[in-house]
Write a structure and sequence with these properties.
The chain is an alpha/beta fold. It has 2 domains: about 210 residues, Glycogen Phosphorylase B (Rossmann fold, 3-Layer(aba) Sandwich), CATH 3.40.50.2000; about 160 residues, Glycogen Phosphorylase B (Rossmann fold, 3-Layer(aba) Sandwich). About 45% of the residues lie in helices and about 15% in strands. The two termini are about 20 Å apart. The structure holds uridine-5'-diphosphate. Uridine-5'-diphosphate binds next to α1, α12 and α13.
């Protein structure tokens, strides 16, 4: 169906409901809005409420109408009933698949009715909810996909049907023999249990993830536009494997950290860590964060606390209220008193501002792709502690390809000991190569998002097309 346009372009941006998906799509939305294009950003209701509440608690300057320049934040129901298990993400996905097309159709109809000059002309959908592109097309809007993870992560997903067919993978998506999977000499290989859908602790769950991966290829052929939060200069070989791929990243926070739509945090930011950082010497602090989803057992949390203490380094540690296996953390006896001013713990940090702070020396990270890009963009070396999804492969990029970090290796029982943590912190501080390499990557990225760079040009191509 042809795109039906009003006088002005109007983009509807729809993220997958997770922190690591909402944030980068909002950064893309802000870039688009800065070019004078109206954007309506659609979260499901529970996420919208979290963002509004977190922004208010962090002291956002936004008014109640939730409008920010030409970005309007709005919400649709997620289709679940109160009796449904609200923590079951598969049930949520099933409900979104069934109900989102209807709710979005209603929303687009109401926008188009209220102002014919600003009809929705384009829908940007997160790749994980690509089924809404059909709704976009039915409503006369141009369908666009946004892919938040690395190009390598998308490339392996797109290769999954072939790998299954050739017998490299079994029907659960597990690498069959004791092999590695390599897509190119310039991309680190994937070892057993490092694939984007790997979930060895629960093969049923892994199979669901794997089946979703097998379907992604069908999603992307629905659109000419496949935007991604990476940059060509960072992963050219992986980008080359994906037809029609348009890397526009890294998408970074704008310089208005107090704006509601800028941060899109699910938790209120604790900015007190910035003044704490101001009192620390340059390059002296280990920043520790596991993103929005990963959890630690209480025993592992104890080992980490004691490892940080043993290292004798200053540390800023994000301990979400559910980090200890869904519960509030309990620290080893006397830990907080012993570390005193050397340690700062917050429930949620303004991460990009932390990573750009001169006092931060390195990032102990779960290697989520957003965190990886944010560290890279600021020239910060990594201590890697991946959990699932693409995080293992991001670690391989960090340690094997860019050589800007080291792994904190688990024992056979999966535990990372305090001694391993201390040893790796010392290794990173004592070898200047990691920082030097990280600064080189920062420069490469800076060029790609700067005027005339590859991501800059790709974004311009897209935004010029939207404005036509
Ligand atoms: N983040 C943040 N403050 C924190 C921890 C994380 O703002 O204290 C942000 C971080 O900057 C990143 C996102 O949350 O943009 C997490 O995304 P990522 O892909 O790294 O991990 P995920 O949460 O998806 O596992």
């Amino acid at each position: 169906m042809a795109v039906i346009k009003g006088k002005k372009p109007h983009v509807l941006a729809v993220p997958y409901p997770a922190q690591g998906h909402v944030k980068p799509l909002m950064k893309l939305a802000r870039l688009i809005a800065r070019h004078g294009i109206k954007v309506t950003f659609v979260n499901i209701e529970c996420i919208h409420e979290k963002i509004v509440a977190a922004a208010k608690m962090s002291g956002s300057e936004e008014e109640d109408d939730q409008e920010d320049g030409d970005i309007v934040l709005t919400s649709i129901p997620d289709g679940r009933s109160p009796e449904d298990d609200q923590n079951n993400s598969f049930k949520l996905l099933e409900s979104l698949r069934n109900t989102m097309p209807g709710f979005l159709t209603g929303l687009i109809e109401s926008i188009n009715r209220s102002n014919g000059d600003e009809r929705v002309s384009c829908v940007i959908a997160d790749i994980s909810i690509g089924w809404i592109l059909e709704t976009a097309q039915k409503m006369g809007a141009e369908p666009v996909i946004f892919s938040p993870p690395s190009a390598a992560a998308l490339a392996i997903v797109l290769h999954s049907p072939g790998l299954l067919e050739q017998g490299n993978l079994d029907s659960n998506g597990t690498i069959k023999k004791d092999e590695m999977i390599s897509l190119s000499d310039n991309i680190p290989p994937w070892r057993k249990d490092e694939l984007a859908w790997s979930f060895p602790a629960d093969l049923e769950t892994q199979k669901i993830f794997f089946e979703c991966s097998l379907r992604i290829e069908k999603t992307i052929i629905q659109t000419k536009w496949l935007l991604s939060n990476t940059c060509y200069d960072l992963e050219s070989s992986a980008c080359d494997l994906i037809p029609g791929f348009l890397p526009v990243g890294p998408l970074l926070e704008t310089n208005n950290p107090k704006s509601l739509s800028n941060s899109c945090n699910f938790h209120p930011e604790d900015a007190s860590c910035l003044s704490w950082l101001n009192n620390k010497p340059p390059g002296s602090v280990v920043y520790v964060s596991f993103g929005s989803l990963a959890v630690l057992s209480q025993q592992q949390l104890d080992e980490l606390a004691l490892g940080l203490e043993l290292s004798g380094m200053a540390f800023l540690w994000v301990v979400r209220s559910d980090l200890a296996n869904g519960s509030r953390a309990v620290y080893p006896g006397g830990f907080l008193e012993r570390v005193g001013e050397l340690g700062k713990i917050v429930e949620w940090a303004p991460q990009e501002r932390v990573l750009s702070h001169p006092s931060v020396a390195c990032f102990l990270s779960h290697c989520g792709w957003n965190s990886t890009l944010e560290g890279l963009s600021n020239g910060v070396p990594f201590l890697c502690w991946p959990y699932f999804a693409d995080q293992h492969h991001n670690q391989n990029y960090i340690c094997e390809k860019w050589e800007i970090g080291v792994r904190i290796d688990p024992e056979e029982n999966g535990m990372r000991t305090r001694h391993e943590i201390k040893t790796k912190i010392e290794m990173l501080f004592s070898d200047g190569r990691f920082k030097a390499n990280a600064m080189k990557v920062k420069e490469i990225i800076g060029k790609s998002v700067g005027e005339g760079g590859s991501s800059y040009k790709n974004f311009k191509t897209f935004v010029d097309h939207l404005s036509k």
